[in-house]
Design goal:
The complex is a heterodimer of chains A (458) and B (57). With 458 residues, chain A is of the alpha/beta class. Chain A is built from 14 helices and 15 strands. Chain A has helices spanning 31-39, 42-48, 88-107, 147-163, 181-187, 196-214, 230-246, 267-281, 316-329, 358-361, 373-379, 384-391, 408-414, 426-436, and strands at 13-18, 21-26, 55-58, 70-74, 110-112, 120-123, 126-129, 135-137, 288-292, 308-313, 334-338, 364-369, 395-402, 437-444, 451-457. Chain A has a seven-stranded mixed sheet with strand order 11-10-9-12-13-15-14, with helices on both faces. Chain A is globular. Chain B has 57 residues and is mainly α. Chain B is rod-shaped. Chain B has helices at residues 2-6, 10-43. Chain B contains two helices and no strands. Mean pLDDT of chain B is 69; it is low at 1-10 and 50-57. Classes of the chains: A alpha/beta (458), B mainly alpha (57). The A-B interface holds A 49, 51, 99-100, 103-104, 143-144, 147-148, 196, 200-201, 204-205, 208-209, 211-215, 217, 219-223, 225, 227-228, 231-236, 238-239, 241-242 and B 4-10, 12-26, 28-29, 50-51, 55-56.
Chain lengths: 458, 57
C-alpha cells in the first residue's frame, strides 16, 4: 500500500487512500502508544469533546496488504484545507485546540510529539485534530519536544497577523515547517518585545539559538534533561494557552470590508440577486457548492445543511468575519477559506506532491462566481476564455454574474487606466461561455445592467 | 551562565529555555492568583484560580 505523499515523516504509521477512502496505518512500533491512547480513555475523552477525529479499526489487514499493525478508518473529512488558507480566528482556534489536546493528554500520561497546524482540519465548522499517531507516552522530567515547533508554526503566524497584517498567515506557504524564530524577529516590530509572551517564546528563543548555533559542536556539555517537572509542563502549556487566548488580529480596513453595505449597490440589488440565485438553484440538483469571491458570505449562507459549501475570498477580513459568523451561529455546512484567485495556493512540499494546490482540491457540483468576473477580466487582465477554462473543471453547474463596462464598479476599475478590453462585452461573454457550457438561464439583476447566468457544463 | 549557553546544542537550549519560561510563568501565575485572591477578599466573591480552569473551555 503506498502512503499518501504528505505522510512520510512519522515512522509510527502513514495515511493511505483505498477506493477513495482515507485510512491510517498504525505500525507495530507505535502499538504501545496507540494502546495507551485507547485504554487510558484519552481517545474517548477527546472524541467526546469533539477535539479528535473519530475512527474505527478495520479487521481485514490482508485486504490492504499488511501482515501486522492496525488499519484505522477515520471519519472522512470532505475538504482538506491548509493553514495558509485560514483566517486569524481559524489559526487561533487551531492553536488553542493543539494546546488543549496536549493538556488533556497530560492528564492521561501522554503528550503531543508534534505541534503543526497540518494536524488540524476544519470539519463541521470547527477545528478537529486529525493525527491519531501524534500521541506519545509522557515521561516526567522531559521538556515538551514540540515546543519550538509550536512557536514557529502557530505563534509566529499569529503574532505576524496581530502586529503586522491580517493575512500574514499566507506566509506559511513559504515556511510550511514553521516560520523560523530569527525570521520572525526580523519581521515583528520592536515593541513586540514588551509583550511577555512574544518576548519569552520568540525573541528570547531567537537569542538563545543564535548563541547555540554559533558554538562549535565538539565541546558540547551534555545537559541532563530530567528536571522539567509535570508542574512546569502544565505552566508552559497553560502559559501558551492564555497568551494565544489574548491575541487579536490587527485592525486594518480592507477593500472589501463593506462591499454589500456600500451605497452604490443597495439592498434592492442584493434582494433581486438573492431571489435569482434561489430560483436558479431550483432547476438543478447539487450537494456541494463553491462560492468564489464570497465576501461576507451572504450567498454561501443561503444553503441549508443538506449542501456543503466552501466560501473563498482573497480578503482575510471577510473570511475572518464569516468564520466568526458560522462559529456564533453554529453553522456546520460552511467552510470559509482565504484564496486569491490570481495567486492561488500552490502545490507544495516534497516533490510538490505533499500538499495539493487549491485548484486540484476545489471541486463541487455548483460553482458560484458572483460579482467576480470584472475583477478577473479587468483588474487582473485575465481573458474571458481563460476564466471559462479555469471554471469548467471546477463544477458541473455555474452561476455567474456578468458586470458590464457601464456598471459603476467597472467604471471605477477603469478610472485610471487605458481601456484595452474591447472583447469585454455581454455578447462575447455569452459566446465564450456557451462554447463550453449549455446556457440554462439568463436574467438581469434587478434594475441594474448586471446579468446573472446559469450554465451547465457540456 | 553566559559561557554555559555557548556550548549547548539547540535541543538542550530548548530544555533550558523551557525551564526559564516555566519559572517566569510560575511567578506570573502566582501573582495573578494572589491578585485574584485579594480582589475576591474585597468583593466577597469566591476566587477562580487560573490553574483550575477547564482546559476544554
Amino acid at each position: 500500500m503506498r502512503s499518501h505523499p504528505a505522510s512520510y515523516r512519522d515512522t509510527s504509521g502513514f495515511v493511505f487512500i483505498h477506493d477513495g477512502m482515507v485510512y491510517r496505518y498504525v505500525h507495530p512500533v507505535y502499538e504501545k502508544q496507540y494502546t495507551q491512547l485507547i485504554h487510558s480513555g484519552l481517545y474517548d475523552e477527546l472524541v467526546k469533546k469533539g477535539k479528535l477525529v473519530v475512527h474505527s479499526e478495520t479487521n481485514d489487514l490482508q485486504k490492504f496488504g499488511f501482515e501486522e499493525g492496525k488499519v484505522l478508518l477515520p471519519a472522512q473529512i470532505p475538504f482538506i484545507s491548509y493553514p495558509y488558507e485560514w483566517s486569524f480566528d481559524m489559526w487561533k482556534d487551531a492553536a488553542l485546540l493543539t494546546l488543549q489536546v496536549a493538556l488533556i493528554s497530560l492528564q492521561k500520561e501522554m503528550i503531543l510529539k508534534d505541534a503543526t497546524p497540518f494536524n488540524i482540519q476544519f470539519h463541521k465548522g470547527k477545528p478537529v485534530f486529525i493525527d491519531t499517531l501524534s500521541f506519545e507516552t509522557y515521561s516526567e522530567g522531559k521538556p515538551w519536544i514540540a515546543y519550538r515547533q509550536f512557536c514557529e508554526c502557530f505563534l509566529g503566524p499569529l503574532l505576524l497577523m496581530h502586529y503586522n497584517y491580517p493575512d500574514a498567515g499566507r506566509l506559511f506557504t513559504v515556511y510550511p515547517n514553521g516560520i523560523p524564530v530569527d525570521v520572525l524577529v526580523s519581521m515583528l516590530p520592536k515593541r513586540s518585545r514588551w509583550n511577555m509572551g512574544a518576548f519569552l517564546h520568540i525573541h528570547l528563543q531567537a537569542k538563545f539559538f543564535q548563541r547555540t548555533l554559533g558554538a562549535g559542536r565538539q565541546n558540547q556539555k551534555p545537559v541532563k534533561e530530567n528536571n522539567f517537572s509535570r508542574k512546569k509542563m502544565e505552566l508552559l502549556l497553560k502559559g501558551l494557552e492564555s497568551f494565544v487566548q489574548k491575541l487579536s488580529v490587527k485592525n486594518v480596513k480592507t477593500t472589501w470590508d463593506d462591499y454589500y453595505t456600500d451605497t452604490i449597490l443597495g439592498t434592492d440589488y442584493l434582494d433581486a440577486k438573492t431571489k435569482l440565485v434561489r430560483s436558479f438553484c431550483n432547476f438543478i440538483d447539487f450537494k456541494t457548492v463553491i462560492d468564489l469571491g464570497a465576501n461576507d458570505g451572504h450567498f454561501s449562507l443561503l444553503f441549508d445543511e443538506s449542501k456543503q459549501v466552501i466560501a473563498t475570498d482573497a480578503d482575510s477580513n471577510c473570511i475572518n468575519a464569516l468564520y466568526r459568523k458560522i462559529k456564533q451561529g453554529g453553522i456546520t455546512n460552511l467552510l470559509p477559506l482565504i484564496n486569491n484567485i490570481v495567486t492561488p495556493s500552490p502545490a507544495t512540499g516534497w516533490n510538490n506532491a505533499e500538499r495539493e494546490s487549491i485548484t486540484q482540491r476545489l471541486k463541487a457540483d455548483l460553482v458560484m462566481a458572483l460579482a467576480l468576473v470584472h475583477h478577473l477580466a479587468i483588474a487582473a487582465n485575465v481573458p474571458l476564455q481563460l476564466i471559462a477554462e479555469w471554471l469548467r473543471p471546477m463544477g458541473s453547474y455555474l452561476i455567474i454574474e456578468f458586470v458590464p463596462k457601464t456598471d459603476e464598479k467597472v467604471k471605477l476599475l477603469l478610472q485610471h487606466r487605458q481601456d484595452i478590453f474591447d472583447s469585454y462585452t455581454l455578447e462575447n461573454f455569452r459566446s465564450v461561455f456557451t462554447e463550453r457550457y449549455q446556457l440554462m438561464k439568463e436574467a438581469p439583476v434587478g434594475n441594474t445592467n448586471r446579468v446573472l447566468f446559469l450554465f451547465k457544463r457540456k | 551562565m553566559h559561557f554555559f549557553f555557548l556550548y549547548i546544542d539547540p535541543g538542550s537550549g530548548s530544555y533550558i529555555l523551557q525551564m526559564i519560561i516555566a519559572a517566569v510563568l510560575g511567578v506570573s501565575f502566582f501573582f495573578k492568583n494572589f491578585w485574584l485572591g485579594v480582589k475576591a477578599f474585597f468583593t466577597g466573591q469566591k476566587p477562580k484560580k487560573e490553574d483550575e480552569k477547564d482546559p476544554a473551555e
